[in-house]
Amino acid sequence: MTAATPPNQNAPLTYDQAGVNYDLIDPLKVAAQRAAAATGTHLASHGFSEVLASRGESAYVVDVGPMYLASIVECLGTKTLVADEMATLTGKSYYDGIAQDTIAMAVNDLITVGATPLVVQAYWAAGGSDWFGDKVRANALVAGWKKACEVCNVAWGGGETPALAGIVADGRVDLAASCTGIISPKTRLSVGDNLGAGDAIVFLASSGIHANGLSLARKLAERLPQGYLTDIGNGQSYGEALLAPTTLYSPVTEAMAAEGIIPNYCANVTGHGWRKLLRHPKQLTYRITAVPPKTPVLAFMQKECGLDDHEAYGTLNMGAGFALYVAAEQAERVVAISKSLGIDAWVAGRVEDGPKQVVIEPLGVTYGAEELQLR
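Now predict its structure.
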């Protein structure tokens, strides 16, 4: 009898197969942005105006006179499903880390425009009132949320905890966070106005998968012989590795500002992977000459899903969770600041004149402008 083909020798498992197709999602985002842009004129009746260049960026910016106001809302996604399954398998609650993930989704977007996060609001929608009755889980969520706020030096203003039976599945929770911040002085605004050839690209290390790509990660678990308990090769289970909390990057950007280092642009490397380096509309080439090490869980996923580098780096963060585009002479100082705060960093490449593309030289991978349509 012929042995069954091992899962990792099957056809590659891609993000599309996991039920997430950006070709379907992104056009809605673009349509929403165009409709939203038509509402910006309403700010004038209040004596304010929008920063037009922030349209299509990771956070929206309003000019309120002496400073800019920035805001963002972000949903965590499906990482809670991994936490729930691992709780069943191990008896542990992972919701302290899940809380950090949720806040990081908002804060890490907010800081891309140069904002100092001020206030976080919580949205915890459960499939029924019973979800809130699990005291261990609920207390972990509250404690983790408060701890993440302390790391980011933000106030937790409040939130909403609806029970949405029939909308959210029974026994599940949908988590989201909004964040408001200020850009003060105004010279901290970072929406790419000064982005240009000669800038250095600095990568800040990720802690793992963060909170993007979980649909693919969960699909892979179905193919693994021991599911989430599968050893990824370093003595850590797949589920534990997936649940490493998302790194909070605002301490780095605040420390940079304290030293007068203002990035010309920033990109939170989330959905779309390293294609996010293309986010700004300028026609520039982003040449990556040094690829940071993959976190073990992402290396494991790439291998087990059978993803080539083009697919893996275009979907997952692959070890680089945040990108800073800074003046070349400031790059090494940015790396030092980040490392002093416990977050590894690398000067990964440079910005060049040329067609809009990301060229990852060590991997022989290129992403063209057509591979990221967010505006």
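The chain has ten helices and 13 strands.
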